[in-house]
Amino acid sequence: MDGKSSSNTAGKPLRCRAAIARKAGEPLVIEEVIVAPPNPREVRIKIICTSLCHSDITLWKLKDPPAIFPRILGHEAVGVVESVGEGVHEVAEGDTVIPTFVSDCGECRDCLSEKSNLCTKFPFSISPWMRDETSRFTDINGETLYHFVYVSSFSEYTVVDIAHVTKIDPAIPANRACLLSCGVSTGVGAAWRTAKVEAGTTVAIFGLGAIGLAVAEGARLCGAKRIIGIDVNQDKCEIGKKFGVTDFVNSRNIGDKTVSQIITEMTDGGADYCFECVGLTSLVHEAYASTRKGWGKTVVVGLDDPSSMLTLSTFELLYSGKSLMGSFFGGLKPKTDINILGKRYMDKELQLDEFVTHEVEFEEINKAFDLLLEGKSLRCVIWMNK
């Protein structure tokens, strides 16, 4: 299909419901909105399920740029193509798709390389617009509603550039498939694609939230022999076992020692791979100090304040031989790697079910926010029209 659709709504504006963040930190408001038809290279998607990620919470709370209101948040989702714009060949009406905040144009040097998932043609930004710096959303009064990281899944319909759309197997349950568009994929990919964890090695994970547990799952799939989880919440000890965590360190109960001292003692010199999954510069330093000299890799997955700076001794960096690297979306290429993870789930290798702690209807979307803010959920799936 190339810009054509048998849908009665193709090429026309659609009225639907969306949960709008009108002010920082205030409950979302479900309102009727108008969603424009897709422009060339764009796809209009009917969202089936969306899930709540901490990045949504962060931008919802934030009062200063890149925060902007009114905005339709949401970026973990799965849906069905309602119609496509001119020049779209990859998907057709009725296809099941996952929208992703990471682009995959398939044409630039990075997308054509196995070494990078950082598309040059469509670089990531927390933009309030589509790629052409316009919006596809307005409220019933004609006011512009802003996008969120090119997805905006807290709407029954959304418009996404084809570079941000991956066609998937429709047999994957929607309330599991949506997890593959951000959090779980990021964590699993950090172990699998970024660090390339080897069988029989030792892994230490700082922070056992959804991302950290996904790193543990990725390390388990890679065959890591020992997976050490570090967290301040003792409950994460039992939860971590579901995802392959073999040892647990409560960083509040280690006396006068630092976490890095504990990890170094436990591993006879440091872990082969360390992952910082909280987003604290201080923990990046601890993770680096916990990594074995010579061949160890420290991977930063969590996001601290963008102005935060690391301070490393150049002598230590030179002498230790360790690697320090970042992992954006787990190093995954959306259009290929998401389907690999989907197949591994269907083959009962990858665990997704254990990440879903709650499911709510669209009208209860603010409950999902409360559950995550209270630390009661890993992932809350929101059904748009169950």
Automatic annotation (TrEMBL):
<dbReference type="Pfam" id="PF00107">
    <property type="entry name" value="ADH_zinc_N"/>
</dbReference>
<protein>
    <recommendedName>
        <fullName>Alcohol dehydrogenase</fullName>
    </recommendedName>
</protein>
<dbReference type="Pfam" id="PF08240">
    <property type="entry name" value="ADH_N"/>
</dbReference>
<feature type="domain" description="Alcohol dehydrogenase-like C-terminal">
    <location>
        <begin position="210"/>
        <end position="331"/>
    </location>
</feature>
<comment type="similarity">
    <text>Belongs to the zinc-containing alcohol dehydrogenase family. Class-III subfamily.</text>
</comment>
<keyword id="KW-0560">Oxidoreductase</keyword>
<dbReference type="InterPro" id="IPR013149">
    <property type="entry name" value="ADH-like_C"/>
</dbReference>
<dbReference type="GO" id="GO:0051903">
    <property type="term" value="F:S-(hydroxymethyl)glutathione dehydrogenase [NAD(P)+] activity"/>
</dbReference>
<comment type="subunit">
    <text>Homodimer.</text>
</comment>
<dbReference type="GO" id="GO:0005829">
    <property type="term" value="C:cytosol"/>
</dbReference>
<dbReference type="GO" id="GO:0008270">
    <property type="term" value="F:zinc ion binding"/>
</dbReference>
<dbReference type="GO" id="GO:0046294">
    <property type="term" value="P:formaldehyde catabolic process"/>
</dbReference>
<keyword id="KW-0862">Zinc</keyword>
<dbReference type="InterPro" id="IPR013154">
    <property type="entry name" value="ADH-like_N"/>
</dbReference>
<dbReference type="InterPro" id="IPR036291">
    <property type="entry name" value="NAD(P)-bd_dom_sf"/>
</dbReference>
<dbReference type="InterPro" id="IPR002328">
    <property type="entry name" value="ADH_Zn_CS"/>
</dbReference>
<dbReference type="InterPro" id="IPR011032">
    <property type="entry name" value="GroES-like_sf"/>
</dbReference>
<feature type="domain" description="Alcohol dehydrogenase-like N-terminal">
    <location>
        <begin position="40"/>
        <end position="168"/>
    </location>
</feature>
<keyword id="KW-0479">Metal-binding</keyword>
<keyword id="KW-0520">NAD</keyword>
